[in-house]
Design goal:
Strand order of the largest sheet: 3-2-4
Number of domains: 1
Shape: globular
Number of helices: 6
Strand content: 5-15%
Length: 273
């Protein structure tokens, strides 16, 4: 039987991973900037046509409450975009080992169809487990992504208030983790002064000077007890978006290495950027 090369367009796969991250970052930025702007109070959906679902004369306290709830709604939507987008990215990744095994004759078309159907209905954690256990594709930062998926579920189903359904394996708290980076000034005295986030400081005076440094892959960890509202700052959310983007890039590199390990004449495209 003649052998046919596989043309794997990793740039296209990267675009599938990047698009929901860009959408989440932009939409959360637009929404949270409106929610936190004290001067923004235009909450009517269609003021020109005078269709009022809720009264147009709400007092300041009621509007503040609406904006607080709106912020939670925006965060829920942003996390949902990130998680579902990453699952769509995994759908593309999953096709690669199936096609390779079909090509090698180690998987039948019936087996491939069954696995593909099963994979489609799995959640993020189980998708990652299947890729790891059946195809040796291991995502190093999978636990962090899974914790973000738990946060998404809590926002989507319980308005961000932690319930027993969010506490897994007897845990007393819901833990959310991701990797961020610290940007700081290192002074001659050995002090580290954070620059990002600035903690409200517009400028920092350093009498003896200092060196700006960056510390990558810093594990952020937030814990929330039952009944507690999950709180994530705009800085947290920006870091989470960047983390999801860099994680997808790292996984593409893992898949590229996987393809090169296969004894087949595969044609690959390197990922730009």
């Amino acid at each position: 039987m003649p052998q046919v090369n596989l043309n794997i367009d990793f740039n296209q796969i990267r675009e599938v991973a990047d698009k929901p991250v860009k959408r989440a970052a932009a939409f959360m930025g637009l929404g949270l900037n409106a929610a936190y702007d004290k001067e923004f109070k235009n909450y009517q959906l269609a003021p020109i046509t005078q269709i009022e679902v809720i009264p147009s004369n709400l007092n300041s306290n009621s509007i503040s409450h609406l904006k607080s709830e709106f912020a939670l709604w925006i965060i829920a939507g942003g996390l949902n975009e990130l998680i579902e987008g990453f699952e769509s990215f995994l759908e593309r990744i999953h096709l690669i080992p199936l096609l390779i095994k079909l090509r090698n004759g180690t998987l039948t078309h019936l087996e491939a169809r069954k696995e593909r159907k099963k994979f489609t209905y799995l959640g993020l954690k189980d998708k990652l487990s299947l890729l790891r256990e059946k195809h040796s594709l291991n995502l190093e930062d999978a636990p962090y992504l899974e914790s973000l998926a738990f946060a998404r579920n809590c926002f989507t189903h319980r308005h961000g208030i932690v319930s027993p359904a969010d506490l897994k394996n007897g845990a007393s708290e819901l833990t959310i983790e991701w990797k961020g980076m610290d940007v700081f000034v290192s002074t001659p005295e050995g002090e580290e002064i954070p620059i990002i986030p600035s903690a409200g400081k517009e400028s920092i005076f350093l009498k003896k000077g200092g060196t700006i440094k960056l510390r990558p892959n810093v594990i952020r960890s937030c814990k929330f007890a039952k009944g507690q509202l999950i709180q994530l700052s705009p800085h947290d959310l920006a870091e989470i978006c960047l983390f999801v983007k860099t994680t997808s890039r790292a996984f593409i590199q893992e898949v590229q290495a996987y393809v090169k390990r296969q004894v087949i004449p595969a044609v690959e495209q390197e990922v730009d950027g």
